[in-house]
Amino acid sequence: MEPMGSASLSGVVEIGDQLCELRPVAVLGSKTNDDDDVPIDLVGASFDDVMGAFANLGREVREVDLVFFRGTKDELMGALAGETGKSFSPPANETITITVIQNGGGANNNGRRSSSSSTTTTHVIKARAGCNLRQILTDNGINVYQSVTRWTNCKGKQLCGTCIVNVSDGGEGTNRKSIDEASTLRENPDSYRLSCVTFAYGDVTVETFPPVKASQWTR
Ligand code: FES
Protein backbone atom coordinates (compact mmCIF):
# COMPACT_ATOMS: atom_id res chain seq x y z
CA MET A 1 0.00 0.00 0.00
CA GLU A 2 1.31 3.44 -0.91
CA PRO A 3 2.13 5.26 2.38
CA MET A 4 0.54 8.50 1.14
CA GLY A 5 -1.91 6.91 -1.27
CA SER A 6 -5.66 7.38 -1.06
CA ALA A 7 -6.20 3.96 0.54
CA SER A 8 -3.67 4.71 3.26
CA LEU A 9 -4.99 8.22 3.87
CA SER A 10 -8.55 6.95 4.13
CA GLY A 11 -7.63 5.14 7.33
CA VAL A 12 -9.99 2.33 6.35
CA VAL A 13 -7.30 -0.10 5.19
CA GLU A 14 -4.11 -0.92 7.06
CA ILE A 15 -0.91 -2.63 5.98
CA GLY A 16 -1.30 -6.31 6.77
CA ASP A 17 -5.06 -6.47 6.16
CA GLN A 18 -6.04 -9.64 4.29
CA LEU A 19 -7.93 -9.22 1.03
CA CYS A 20 -10.85 -11.67 1.06
CA GLU A 21 -13.17 -10.74 -1.76
CA LEU A 22 -13.47 -8.52 -4.80
CA ARG A 23 -16.94 -7.41 -5.82
CA PRO A 24 -17.14 -5.83 -9.27
CA VAL A 25 -19.68 -3.04 -9.57
CA ALA A 26 -20.98 -2.76 -13.11
CA VAL A 27 -22.17 0.70 -14.09
CA LEU A 28 -25.95 0.72 -14.18
CA GLY A 29 -27.17 -0.15 -17.66
CA SER A 30 -23.76 -1.11 -18.97
CA LYS A 31 -23.69 -4.71 -17.79
CA THR A 32 -23.30 -7.05 -20.77
CA ASN A 33 -21.87 -10.12 -19.11
CA ASP A 34 -23.45 -12.19 -16.32
CA ASP A 35 -20.04 -12.42 -14.63
CA ASP A 36 -19.64 -8.63 -14.43
CA ASP A 37 -20.90 -8.38 -10.87
CA VAL A 38 -20.14 -11.82 -9.43
CA PRO A 39 -18.06 -11.66 -6.22
CA ILE A 40 -14.60 -13.17 -6.59
CA ASP A 41 -13.29 -15.13 -3.60
CA LEU A 42 -9.66 -14.18 -2.90
CA VAL A 43 -9.13 -15.80 0.50
CA GLY A 44 -5.62 -17.25 0.49
CA ALA A 45 -5.06 -16.18 -3.13
CA SER A 46 -1.50 -15.48 -4.27
CA PHE A 47 -0.45 -11.99 -5.39
CA ASP A 48 -0.52 -13.18 -9.00
CA ASP A 49 -4.06 -14.55 -8.60
CA VAL A 50 -5.24 -11.26 -7.11
CA MET A 51 -3.69 -9.30 -9.96
CA GLY A 52 -5.24 -11.77 -12.40
CA ALA A 53 -8.67 -11.20 -10.85
CA PHE A 54 -8.34 -7.44 -11.41
CA ALA A 55 -6.99 -7.93 -14.93
CA ASN A 56 -9.91 -10.18 -15.89
CA LEU A 57 -12.64 -7.76 -14.83
CA GLY A 58 -15.13 -6.89 -17.56
CA ARG A 59 -14.72 -3.58 -19.37
CA GLU A 60 -18.06 -2.45 -17.98
CA VAL A 61 -16.72 -2.58 -14.43
CA ARG A 62 -15.80 0.94 -13.34
CA GLU A 63 -15.66 0.34 -9.63
CA VAL A 64 -14.96 -2.52 -7.23
CA ASP A 65 -15.80 -3.19 -3.60
CA LEU A 66 -13.02 -4.92 -1.65
CA VAL A 67 -13.61 -6.97 1.50
CA PHE A 68 -10.69 -7.14 3.95
CA PHE A 69 -9.98 -9.06 7.13
CA ARG A 70 -7.91 -7.29 9.80
CA GLY A 71 -5.38 -9.76 11.16
CA THR A 72 -2.79 -12.25 10.02
CA LYS A 73 -3.42 -14.91 7.41
CA ASP A 74 -3.38 -17.55 10.16
CA GLU A 75 -5.98 -15.59 12.12
CA LEU A 76 -8.11 -15.35 8.98
CA MET A 77 -7.90 -19.10 8.44
CA GLY A 78 -8.72 -19.62 12.11
CA ALA A 79 -11.75 -17.35 11.79
CA LEU A 80 -12.92 -19.23 8.72
CA ALA A 81 -12.58 -22.49 10.59
CA GLY A 82 -15.21 -21.12 12.94
CA GLU A 83 -15.74 -22.63 16.30
CA THR A 84 -15.18 -26.20 15.15
CA GLY A 85 -11.46 -26.01 15.86
CA LYS A 86 -10.77 -27.67 12.53
CA SER A 87 -7.82 -26.42 10.54
CA PHE A 88 -8.84 -24.67 7.35
CA SER A 89 -7.04 -23.90 4.17
CA PRO A 90 -8.73 -23.34 0.85
CA PRO A 91 -7.61 -26.23 -1.34
CA ALA A 92 -6.55 -25.20 -4.82
CA ASN A 93 -8.36 -26.80 -7.73
CA GLU A 94 -10.10 -29.32 -5.49
CA THR A 95 -13.47 -30.61 -6.55
CA ILE A 96 -16.27 -30.63 -4.00
CA THR A 97 -19.78 -32.06 -4.05
CA ILE A 98 -22.78 -29.82 -3.59
CA THR A 99 -25.97 -31.73 -2.90
CA VAL A 100 -28.95 -29.51 -3.59
CA ILE A 101 -32.37 -30.31 -2.19
CA GLN A 102 -34.49 -28.11 -4.39
CA ASN A 103 -37.77 -26.55 -3.28
CA GLY A 104 -37.79 -28.61 -0.14
CA GLY A 105 -36.03 -26.76 2.60
CA GLY A 106 -38.79 -27.08 5.14
CA ALA A 107 -36.72 -26.43 8.24
CA ASN A 108 -37.32 -26.55 11.94
CA ASN A 109 -35.63 -24.25 14.40
CA ASN A 110 -32.38 -26.16 14.06
CA GLY A 111 -32.33 -25.64 10.33
CA ARG A 112 -33.02 -29.33 9.68
CA ARG A 113 -35.36 -30.26 6.85
CA SER A 114 -38.72 -31.72 7.63
CA SER A 115 -39.13 -35.29 6.39
CA SER A 116 -42.72 -34.57 5.40
CA SER A 117 -41.90 -32.60 2.28
CA SER A 118 -43.10 -34.40 -0.85
CA THR A 119 -41.97 -31.97 -3.54
CA THR A 120 -38.23 -32.12 -3.18
CA THR A 121 -35.83 -32.74 -6.02
CA THR A 122 -32.22 -33.59 -5.33
CA HIS A 123 -29.31 -32.57 -7.55
CA VAL A 124 -25.65 -33.46 -7.10
CA ILE A 125 -23.23 -30.90 -8.49
CA LYS A 126 -19.47 -31.17 -8.75
CA ALA A 127 -17.79 -27.80 -8.32
CA ARG A 128 -14.47 -26.15 -7.64
CA ALA A 129 -13.63 -25.63 -3.98
CA GLY A 130 -14.22 -22.00 -3.11
CA CYS A 131 -17.18 -21.61 -5.47
CA ASN A 132 -19.92 -19.10 -4.78
CA LEU A 133 -23.18 -20.85 -3.90
CA ARG A 134 -25.51 -18.48 -5.73
CA GLN A 135 -23.37 -18.64 -8.84
CA ILE A 136 -23.03 -22.43 -8.91
CA LEU A 137 -26.75 -22.93 -8.30
CA THR A 138 -27.89 -20.47 -10.95
CA ASP A 139 -25.30 -21.85 -13.39
CA ASN A 140 -27.03 -25.20 -12.93
CA GLY A 141 -30.50 -23.78 -13.50
CA ILE A 142 -31.48 -23.83 -9.83
CA ASN A 143 -33.46 -20.85 -8.58
CA VAL A 144 -32.68 -19.56 -5.09
CA TYR A 145 -35.33 -16.82 -5.06
CA GLN A 146 -38.74 -17.57 -3.61
CA SER A 147 -40.77 -14.86 -5.34
CA VAL A 148 -40.68 -12.12 -7.92
CA THR A 149 -37.18 -11.36 -6.64
CA ARG A 150 -36.10 -14.07 -9.08
CA TRP A 151 -36.17 -11.19 -11.56
CA THR A 152 -35.73 -8.17 -9.32
CA ASN A 153 -32.90 -9.32 -7.05
CA CYS A 154 -29.68 -7.40 -6.55
CA LYS A 155 -27.63 -9.87 -8.65
CA GLY A 156 -25.39 -10.92 -5.81
CA LYS A 157 -24.52 -7.51 -4.33
CA GLN A 158 -25.86 -8.43 -0.87
CA LEU A 159 -28.46 -5.69 -1.05
CA CYS A 160 -31.80 -7.47 -1.44
CA GLY A 161 -31.43 -10.25 1.14
CA THR A 162 -33.58 -12.64 -0.90
CA CYS A 163 -31.11 -15.34 -2.01
CA ILE A 164 -31.58 -17.32 1.21
CA VAL A 165 -30.66 -21.00 1.31
CA ASN A 166 -30.27 -23.46 4.15
CA VAL A 167 -26.82 -25.07 4.33
CA SER A 168 -28.15 -28.04 6.25
CA ASP A 169 -24.90 -30.00 6.21
CA GLY A 170 -21.24 -29.09 5.78
CA GLY A 171 -21.62 -25.50 6.94
CA GLU A 172 -18.24 -25.68 8.68
CA GLY A 173 -16.68 -25.87 5.21
CA THR A 174 -18.05 -22.47 4.19
CA ASN A 175 -16.88 -18.94 4.95
CA ARG A 176 -18.16 -17.40 8.18
CA LYS A 177 -21.07 -14.99 8.13
CA SER A 178 -20.19 -11.34 8.07
CA ILE A 179 -21.90 -9.04 10.57
CA ASP A 180 -24.11 -7.74 7.74
CA GLU A 181 -25.19 -11.22 6.66
CA ALA A 182 -25.84 -12.30 10.25
CA SER A 183 -27.92 -9.18 10.79
CA THR A 184 -30.00 -9.78 7.66
CA LEU A 185 -30.68 -13.37 8.75
CA ARG A 186 -30.99 -12.73 12.49
CA GLU A 187 -34.48 -14.24 12.82
CA ASN A 188 -33.52 -17.46 11.06
CA PRO A 189 -31.62 -20.64 12.01
CA ASP A 190 -27.82 -20.37 12.00
CA SER A 191 -27.59 -22.62 8.95
CA TYR A 192 -29.45 -20.12 6.77
CA ARG A 193 -27.15 -18.20 4.42
CA LEU A 194 -27.30 -15.54 1.76
CA SER A 195 -26.12 -17.68 -1.12
CA CYS A 196 -24.51 -14.74 -2.92
CA VAL A 197 -21.92 -14.27 -0.18
CA THR A 198 -21.42 -17.92 0.75
CA PHE A 199 -18.41 -19.80 -0.56
CA ALA A 200 -18.04 -23.58 -0.22
CA TYR A 201 -14.65 -25.14 0.41
CA GLY A 202 -15.90 -28.62 1.28
CA ASP A 203 -18.88 -30.88 0.53
CA VAL A 204 -22.17 -29.22 1.47
CA THR A 205 -25.87 -29.93 1.37
CA VAL A 206 -27.92 -26.91 0.37
CA GLU A 207 -31.69 -26.60 0.58
CA THR A 208 -33.41 -23.99 -1.54
CA PHE A 209 -36.61 -22.23 -0.52
CA PRO A 210 -36.16 -22.66 3.23
CA PRO A 211 -39.18 -21.34 5.12
CA VAL A 212 -38.79 -17.80 6.39
CA LYS A 213 -41.13 -15.49 8.24
CA ALA A 214 -43.05 -12.97 6.15
CA SER A 215 -41.27 -10.18 8.02
CA GLN A 216 -37.99 -11.25 6.38
CA TRP A 217 -39.18 -9.82 3.06
CA THR A 218 -40.39 -6.50 4.39
CA ARG A 219 -37.28 -5.21 6.14
S1 FES B 1 -28.71 -11.70 -4.37
FE1 FES B 1 -29.33 -9.97 -3.23
S2 FES B 1 -28.57 -10.37 -1.24
FE2 FES B 1 -27.95 -12.11 -2.37
UniProtKB/TrEMBL annotation:
Keywords: 2Fe-2S, Iron, Iron-sulfur, Metal-binding. One of its GO terms (molecular function) is 2 iron, 2 sulfur cluster binding. InterPro entries: 2Fe-2S_ferredoxin-like_sf, 2Fe-2S_ferredoxin-type, Beta-grasp_dom_sf. This is 2Fe-2S ferredoxin-type domain-containing protein. It comes from the Eukaryota. PROSITE patterns: 2FE2S_FER_2. The lineage of its organism: Eukaryota, Sar, Stramenopiles, Ochrophyta, Bacillariophyta. Gene3D superfamilies: 3.10.20.30. It comes from Cyclostephanos tholiformis. Residues 96-212 form the 2Fe-2S ferredoxin-type domain. It holds the Pfam family Fer2.
